[in-house]
Design a protein that fits this description.
This protein has one helix at about 50-65; strands at about 10, 15-25, 25-30, 40, 45-50. It is of the alpha+beta class and about 70 residues long.
Amino acid sequence: MTLPIGSYVVEISTGRVGTVMGHEGPYVQVRPLGGGREWDVEPEEVREATTSERLSAATAHANARSRGEVP
């Protein structure tokens, strides 16, 4: 299954939540919520994020930003 660009996904092994930015060769390119450096993941290592996972990651990023930990 090819995940569409803009989909919210979870990397199964790490629990990182991000947005699909593209597909390069055999990899899915994922960017963390709130921006940052993309990383490549094999398609079988990601799944669609639940609404709860997406909201939790967005809240964690907003809290980190308010503490000055991320730009």
